[in-house]
Design goal:
Elements (H helix, E strand, L loop, with lengths): L1 H23 L6 H26 L1
């Protein structure tokens, strides 16, 4: 249960920090690339437990 709490906490921290960072960035041609990179980071944090389980098999 503790691992689940840590995983959810990490997801929330990453989403909040990336959202804050995105607000600070000016709108430019790089904004769509940064949103793509941010979404990849969030996806990797969400999939981390699945990857660990698959490595354990």
């Amino acid at each position: 249960m503790s691992e689940l709490f840590i995983w959810v906490r990490d997801i929330l921290i990453i989403i909040l920090s990336l959202s804050f960072f995105q607000i600070l960035l000016p709108d430019s041609s790089m904004a769509k690339y940064l949103r793509y990179i941010f979404s990849l980071v969030i996806l990797s944090v969400i999939l981390e437990p699945v990857i660990q389980i698959l490595n354990g098999l």
